[in-house]
Design goal:
Blueprint (H helix, E strand, L loop, with lengths): L2 H8 L4 H29 L4 H26 L6 H16 L7 H33 L4 H21 L6 H21 L14 H13 L1 H15 L2 H13 L4 H22 L1 H6 L1 H19 L5 H9 L1 H19 L5 H31 L4 H31 L1
Helix pairs in contact: 2-5, 2-6, 2-7, 3-5, 3-16, 4-5, 4-7, 5-16, 6-11, 9-15, 9-16, 9-17, 10-16, 11-14, 11-15, 13-15, 13-17, 15-16
Length: 404
């Protein structure tokens, strides 16, 4: 699986352009799967509780499946080879959603598709972070291009559903994954998993994973990022419902969501270099502090005019903390354990923590309405405490190095 990407390099496509195209390819699937899978499952006869169960299971199991798949991926010679296989497997899983309208069948199909697709992101992040450092480009450019593709896919499916049946949702996701597999084979640089070319034994790869989990600073960084990212759960689940209750129209709700994602993309494209100057620990502090403020204010149902600047805080609550966590994990993990390290980070921040917070958001909403945001503000406050501790540890380490 080297010929396609090698040809693209010879034909003049830069590494940055090829990575931008690949991120766009894989976000074409998530741009439809995340916003619209509930619509598809509802059309197939699933209840709200069943849909919640189907969607939560891959998130709750991600702390186990993510590291296992990452260790498996490190057994290949090239990093892109397992990406191709994962995306083909995801296409099969998502395609199975077209099968019988049975709860257990849907649980299995969604678990396979979502688990395999979500593993691709930390694997490509490992390549992009290293290439960004070596080739001197901004990691946020390809990642922001992916977010832009997410918006485009979201809008396109919204338009398609005005005249097509919801079956098109599962078809789009499966085909997009196959397109992503082709992109992985032809666009992703032929990076070796291990620079020396030798594959470590499976036992050695598992030992590297266990060493990561014994590193207290690494664990603190992962938990901190997980708390900040998981604090978005109530917003993801119930912001639209609460805004409707305030009398905000559907088109305006779409604009508000667009403002948040646009702020995220702008941050990644233009402001990520500040992270290099300030360091990932400070960015985590900024992201957590913004999250505490944002979710606390949302609990009191602020007026429409104030929602626009509050939505722009998504640049800090999501983008800043996301980029900071990637860089911090890269800094703390040895190169031989780069894939498992990012997989663990992804498993907690966009997996288990988000899954638990999503499951608890429903009862919080039923019992307290908008005041449910205060629970996520508390999560962000705990994340802020972790970020401050990480900053102090980084300063202490820098002081120790200066002494020697």
């Amino acid at each position: 699986m080297t010929g396609g990407a090698d040809r693209s390099e010879r034909e003049g496509l830069s590494t940055l352009v090829r990575l931008c195209l690949f991120y766009a390819a894989i976000f074409l699937s998530s741009g439809v799967s995340l916003p619209y899978i509930g619509t598809y499952l509802r059309d197939r006869g699933m209840t709200g509780g069943e849909i919640g169960l189907i969607l939560a299971i891959p998130l709750l199991l991600k702390p186990f499946t993510g590291p296992v798949l990452a260790v498996w991926a490190d057994g290949f010679t090239l990093r892109r080879t397992p990406m191709v296989l994962l995306l083909i497997g995801a296409a099969i899983g998502y395609g199975a959603l077209l099968g019988p309208a049975n709860l257990w069948w849907f649980i299995l199909a969604w678990f396979v598709g979502q688990t395999l697709l979500s593993t691709v992101s930390p694997l490509i992040d490992v390549i992009t972070l290293r290439r960004a450092r070596v080739d001197n480009f901004n990691y946020g450019i390809p990642r922001g291009t992916g977010s832009s593709a997410f918006i485009a896919a979201n809008l396109a499916m919204g338009a398609i559903l005005t005249f097509a049946a919801p079956t098109i949702i599962a078809v789009w996701i499966a085909v997009a994954c196959l397109f992503g597999a082709l992109a992985a084979a032809t666009l992703v640089p032929p990076e070796r998993v291990h620079a020396e070319g030798a594959k470590p034994l499976r036992s050695e790869r598992w030992n590297g994973l266990s060493e990561l989990l014994r590193n207290r600073t690494f664990v603190l960084a992962v938990v901190t990022a997980g708390l900040i990212q998981g604090a978005h759960a109530f917003y993801y689940s119930f912001s639209a419902i609460l805004w409707r209750k305030q009398g905000i129209s559907e088109p305006m709700i779409g604009v508000l969501w667009g403002v948040g994602v646009a702020a995220e993309v702008a941050f990644m494209w233009f402001l990520e270099p500040l992270r290099r100057r300030w360091g990932p620990e400070l960015f985590l502090v900024l992201g957590a502090g913004a999250a505490v403020m944002r979710w606390t204010i949302y609990a009191f149902e602020p007026p429409l005019w104030s929602l626009f600047p509050l939505q722009m805080l998504h640049a800090l609550t999501f983008a800043a903390s996301f980029l900071a966590s990637l860089r911090l994990i890269e800094k703390l993990a040895p190169p031989t354990a780069a894939s498992p390290a990012q997989a663990i980070n992804s498993a907690l921040s966009s997996g288990f923590t988000l899954g638990i917070a999503t499951l608890t958001s429903g009862p919080l909403f039923d019992a307290f309405g908008a005041f449910g945001y205060l629970a996520t503000a508390l999560m962000a406050l705990l994340g802020l405490a972790g970020a401050i501790l990480l900053t102090r540890r980084a300063r202490s380490l820098s002081s120790d190095r200066l002494r020697f």
